[in-house]
Amino acid sequence: MSASEGKVRREIAVTRSNGRGSAKQSPERIVEAIVAAIGEHRLAPGTKLGEEHLGEIFGVSRTIVRAALVRLANTRVVTIEPNRGAFVAQPSVREAREVFDARRVIETALIRRLAGVCDAAALAGLRRHLEQEDVARTAGDRRSAVKLSGDFHLKLAELAGNETLLELLRELVLRSSLVVMLYEYDGRTACAPDEHTRLVAAIATGDAEAAARLMAEHLDHVEAGLSLDDKGDAAVDLREVFSAFTG
Length: 247
Description:
This protein is mainly α. Helix content is 69%, strand content 3%. The protein is built from 13 helices and 2 strands; from the N terminus they run αααααββαααααααα. The longest helix has 22 residues, at 93-114. The two termini are 25 Å apart. Residues 1-25 are annotated as: Disordered. It comes from Plasticicumulans lactativorans.
């Protein structure tokens, strides 16, 4: 369900280096906040993103808010409906299946490549990431666990070294956050921790085919854990959701 967040964070850093005031008035700041909130499962599918309300929260004009929403609409994270406004996207069942189909194609290719080039330093970094996931789960910090789970998949893609596929995967992981929020069974985590551990073990042995098979099975399990029942709409307080980005 956070995903293109890495790219957006880099863009924010560049903007801020050019001046604090200009960063606060940029649409990238709002893009970053919405991406992070979706990736951490703070912002649910179907939530209305009113331009005026967001402008008040972030202290910017509706023009800047609109620019941010259009950017997010281009990646299908937000939908803009004539005469109704912008909403966090609600992927259909078909879109949910297509997202996982696309992830299987991309991630099996990436991990197959990674298994042949991953060095000791990269493996150590992956194992540290697994430890962070374990700490978050043990502490009952679901939001951190969800974010770290998505970040694990992006970290594998980064290490594989294909920037084009990485950019595609960032969007797909973010859209997966929406899919999981909309269709997951109550209390179920998106990724089983032992499956991440087995993926790293396969990479460490250099067995590309085993790594690709495990990745496909892992994504199959995540998809199989989704309920296709309509969850209905829940009220969301946007000011509370974005408080960490506007304080």
